[in-house]
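Objective 1b: paired records.
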Amino acid sequence: MKNGSVEKSHDTFKQAVKQHLLLRGSRNFVDLKAYELFLTQIKEKRNSCRKEKLAEELVYLKELPIRKWNAPTILSVRVNPSSTVSILSVAYLCLVA
């Protein structure tokens, strides 16, 4: 399943909203702001247990490098008459047609 953990988290949030609405006894809200506040409170409550763990992990995180780790390095090299090429001090055999 693609993005399974994200989809499951979304599903459990929807279930939590349903439960809170049942406990509240009404699905009616004064306005959109009241509904958004209701959802925010549920989200904050669900995320509160994760905040401590996140704070622990953030201590070890470093800034991401400007260059992606898998970004290609483009080099101009010459193929020797023996059909070998040296790239970053590593010799490669080239099959010349």
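Objective 1b, second protein:
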Amino acid sequence: MRRLARPTGLSRGFSQPQQHSQSQKQQRRHIRSRKPLSNHPRGVPLHQGSKPLKRRFPVFELPDIVLDLDAEGSPHVRPFDAHKDGPFQEAQWGYDPVIDEVKRDASLMKQTMRRDLSRLKAATQVPFSGERLSDLDIMTAALMNQSSNVDPDNDSQSRKLDTFKRRDSRLQNDLIRNGIPKAIGRDATHVIPFMLHRRQLALEAIKDPSKRGPSGGDDESDLNRGIAGCRDLAQLRRLCSRIDRPESGVEFSAASIDHVHAHLLVLLQSGEEGTSAADILKFVNNVTINRLSANKELNRSMTLLGLQLASELSLLSCILQYLQICLSMSFITSRDDSSTLTRSHVGMALLAALQRGEATARGTRQQIFTLLTGRGPSSLPPMPCLFGLVAEDHVQRLEVFKLSARLLGELGALRLLMHHWRQRAQQFGITGQPMESGQQLGHEMQDLDEVFAEAFQRCIQVLSGGQTDDISMDLTTVTGNVEKDAGLDLQNINVMEIVHARRETKGSRPSPESIGKPLHIEEIKDAFNEQDMRTSMGRFQKLIERAAIDA
């Protein structure tokens, strides 16, 4: 037994007009004499409200009927009885649908939708200001500036494009005035590679020098004189803000940015109020991010200045961002002797940050490893790097070699540390820099051995503190191939970051800051000097287990 749609009585107004004609009365008498199937002409009119219904012949849906069996088992149709069939239907189907309730729920849903749409519209129409500028707005301005994907032939689309340009101009001005939000500073590590790749594509597309625009002429000379006339950083910031606006019509050339860089150095050396290293770095940050977002060429001297200031101020995230830019744009190369001082300065800043324990954010240690060695995940090709895997392609300076070993120890890259140890005698004993005497060579090699001993002890501390009962690292596998071993070290670094992130989430005690008993340098040398790297790795594993027990 199953019930059809229950009537609501909405058609009573149509079936009971105020003035009853004689024909309608006759029709009612005829209806009362019908059988039960047609004796209840109640229901919902079809297509209600679409067109007027005929008065004499109203159209109805099927009435409220029930298909039942009589005493002899023959099926027959009878009217629905609410007192008899209602409880049986609820027991059989679990629910008695009511059309009025469904309509009420639909009405409430429509009201909720209208309220949500009004709130969303009010939120999107909030005027932009420096206080209400969101990180999403900054990201939109950085990634969608100079966009021409909208069809200018369509009037409505053109109006949308004009609105976007005005909004984008406000965002750029707020970016220049207020600086980069902290959230964007953290996410810039992922955004900057996209911007650099977009810049590289733009340079490949514009191969004809005649298509690169005018060189400047008189406007450039006036701009350089204006830069030289700025007495403090505030005036220089206002001048650059006016030039960066699209309506200014003046473009920064490479020579003009060199003038800005020289003027910044003068202001930095003056020591006046408002010209500290932090203020200069904020100015350089804004210039760099604006030129990146506008897909314009970056200046080598300005970018290297940002890297230098970030290293002096020990800002790890800023160091990584500028180092990524400098390596991608070939402002720093591992084969250039003129970059040795900069590489050493940046390496010392990274080492100090690692020793202070600042590289705790997820993915930071992996990024440092990639920037140092040029090897990321196995799916990525080799990238420009600060030091390289080993010093086999060129003769590195001794201080840079020591610094690289200490950084690998801080990261826990045991296998690469072993490869560096095997390269040390060849680089600095045979084909290395010429020494004045054998005594000096022996002294330098002794210092290098002490550096490796300290780096290995730090590596033991990092590896022993990066394991738990349910998460362990691979400390047995070694291939002898420097690239494959670098991939294994990167996997261990990833495991250590997972362990540290879990400890921070649980609020547990961090790993110990020092091992219990320092290892003797002769033990480390004996383990390093094994002919087979697998045997050497086995001895290292025993030393790591012993140091972890003594801690």
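The chain has 21 helices and two strands. Strands lie at 65-69, 75-79.
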